[in-house]
Design a protein that fits this description.
binds nicotinamide-adenine-dinucleotide; six-stranded parallel β-sheet; 2 domains; Rossmann fold; SIR2/SIRT2 'Small Domain'; three-stranded antiparallel β-sheet; binds zinc ion; 10 helices; alpha/beta
């Protein structure tokens, strides 16, 4: 069954002409970064309203930094896995034209993907909440919390909390592509965080084929997505790439 689906996806990608991927925390799980939802998800441990909103951060930055440091540690040691590498390879083959990622871990870029739109920012750099200045991570004091900018503002990783706006340029690029693409791969996302969750819906309405890769069904399955390849991205995506290579020989 999965073998047949892999073939179909390979053919679809070879003849699509315009393909995007929307990725989420699930693709980085095999790199050792916990997802937010699901078994052992971070939200089992940290309540969203208490830790992940911009109001919570402003109210009690030291407490929220407790969670941020834990995430930071998981992310700084992480390396791309075969799922990230396979997407980078698809791009090099000319078969994947944009990745829109909800992840903030920089692993797509480290795997070699070039056209990466970061919908929720990136934790490799830090930013002042008030004057918006970028702060180099290495120069931020993570011992005396919370770190502050010379303007007095709070400094935080340059990824957005709930309640903050999506980076404007990223949002424009992502939604434009959603309307133009012929195929969208939805990889490792539960698709419940708006507005990212609207991307596959918009692509579908514009006529694209929606293919999910996820070990679990999601809110999109059977409703918005045309197929679900059930399993880990790190296992399935390399097999799809191998199939395409064998067809191109
Ligand atoms: P989510 O935690 O809501 O959902 C994760 C999804 O991944 C689930 O549907 C799960 O079934 C699936 N999954 C689990 N293992 C998988 C695997 N091996 N291969 C493929 N799929 C797998 O994640 P989300 O939808 O991205 O939303 C969470 C938000 O949290 C995002 O906005 C993201 O910014 C942020 N986040 C980012 C990271 C990161 O950068 N790595 C990590 C945690 C959370
Ligand atoms: Zn500042």
């Amino acid at each position: 069954m999965l073998e047949e689906q892999v073939k179909q996806l390979g053919e679809l990608l070879m003849f699509s002409g315009r393909t995007m991927a929307l990725t989420g925390a699930g693709i980085s799980l095999d790199s050792g970064i916990p997802t937010f939802r699901g078994v052992q998800g971070l939200w089992e441990k940290y309540d969203i309203m208490e830790y992940a909103t911009i109001e919570a951060f402003r109210r009690d930055p030291v407490k929220v930094w407790g969670m941020l440091l834990e995430m930071d540690q998981a992310m700084m040691g992480a390396k791309p896995n075969p799922g990230h590498t396979a997407l980078a390879e698809l791009e090099r083959m000319g078969l994947l034209h944009m990745i829109v990622t909800q992840n903030v871990d920089n692993l797509h870029q480290e795997a070699g993907s070039r056209e990466v739109v970061e919908f929720h920012g990136n934790v490799r750099q830090f930013r002042c909440l008030e004057c918006r200045q970028i702060h180099e991570r290495a120069k931020v004091d993570l011992v005396n919390l919370p770190p502050r900018c010379h303007c007095g503002g709070l400094v935080k990783p340059d990824a957005i909390f709930f309640g903050e706006a999506i980076p404007w340029a990223a949002s424009v690029k992502a939604f434009e592509m959603a309307q133009q693409c012929r195929v969208i791969l939805v990889v490792g996302t539960s698709a419940v965080v708006a507005p990212a969750s609207e991307i596959p819906v918009m692509a579908k309405q514009a006529g694209a084929t929606v293919v999910e890769i996820n070990p679990e069904e999601t809110v999109l399955t059977g409703r918005v997505s045309d197929t679900l390849l059930k399993g880990s991205a790190a296992t399935i995506l390399p097999v799809v790439v191998e199939y395409i290579k064998s067809r191109r020989q």
